[in-house]
Specification:
Elements (H helix, E strand, L loop, with lengths): L1 H8 L1 H7 L12 H13 L14 H7 L7 H8 L4 H23 L5 E12 L9 E2 L5 E10 L5 E5 L11 H9 L3 H4 L4 E4 L4 E6 L1
Antiparallel strand pairs: 1-3, 1-6, 2-3, 3-4, 5-6
Helix pairs in contact: 2-3
Length: 204
C-alpha cells in the first residue's frame, strides 16, 4: 500500500516546498512528477516507460486522487538534471527517511551500521551533466550511496562527477548518512569496519 504510505510521509508537499522542478506554468508540480517516479521504482520499473505499470486500474486505486503524468512529462521533469537538482532530491529523500523512521520503520535501537560505497554509473557520452573520465578511463558519474546494514534502507546518496575519487570525503558522507537517523535513533557515531568494505557504526 505504497500510495497511503507516500501520502502519510507527505512526499508531494515536501517536494513542492523544495520547488523540485515544476513542469511549466499550469503544469504538473515537481512533487506529482517525483511521486510518479518513486512509484514506478516501487512497482519494479527501471525505465520511464515502465510508468505503464501504474496505469492499471487496480494500481490506480493505490494512487488515490494523484495524477499520473505521461511518459513525455516525466522525461521533461528529469531532462537536463544537474547535480544541484540531484542534491535537492537527495535532501528530500533524507526528509522522507527521517519521517518514516519516526513513524516506526527504524531498525531496532542498538547499533546502526552505515555501509558507504561509490557506485559507478557509465554514460554513453560526455555531454551528460558532470560526466567525466574516471580512473577506469571510462566516461560516467561516480555517485555515493550509503546503506543501513540493519534493514537495507538507503540512508543517503551523493551525486558526484565522474572524475571523483571513490573514497573522497568519506567521513562527511557517513555523517550525512547518520544525520537523518538522529531524531529517531539517537545516533552518536563511532567508527568501525566491515569484512569487505569500510562501514561506520553508531550506538543509540
Amino acid at each position: 500500500m505504497w500510495g497511503e504510505l507516500l501520502d502519510r510521509l507527505g512526499l508531494v508537499e515536501e517536494a513542492d516546498r523544495r520547488v523540485l522542478h515544476p513542469i511549466g506554468p499550469g503544469g504538473y508540480s515537481g512533487g506529482e512528477c517525483y511521486r510518479a517516479v518513486v512509484e514506478t521504482q516501487l512497482a519494479g520499473g527501471e525505465f520511464l516507460s515502465d510508468r505503464a505499470l501504474l496505469a492499471h486500474e487496480a494500481t490506480q486505486t493505490l494512487r488515490g486522487s494523484h495524477v499520473l503524468p505521461s511518459h513525455s512529462t516525466l522525461f521533461r521533469f528529469l531532462d537536463e538534471s544537474d547535480l544541484g537538482r540531484a542534491h535537492k532530491a537527495a535532501a528530500l529523500n533524507r526528509a522522507m527517511l527521517r519521517r518514516a523512521w519516526l513513524m516506526g520503520a527504524a531498525p531496532p535501537a542498538g547499533v546502526l551500521t552505515v555501509d558507504p560505497d561509490a557506485t559507478w554509473i557509465e554514460t554513453s557520452e560526455r555531454n551528460k551533466r558532470r560526466a567525466a573520465l574516471s580512473y577506469k578511463h571510462e566516461v560516467g558519474l561516480s555517485a555515493m550511496v550509503g546503506v543501513c546494514g540493519e534493514n537495507g534502507d538507503v540512508l543517503a546518496m551523493r551525486a558526484r562527477g565522474g572524475n571523483a575519487n571513490p573514497g573522497r570525503a568519506m567521513d562527511s558522507f557517513v555523517d550525512e548518512c547518520v544525520r537523518p537517523s538522529r531524531p529517531s535513533f539517537g545516533a552518536a557515531g563511532s567508527c568501525g569496519y566491515g569484512s569487505t568494505r569500510p562501514a561506520r557504526t553508531a550506538r543509540s
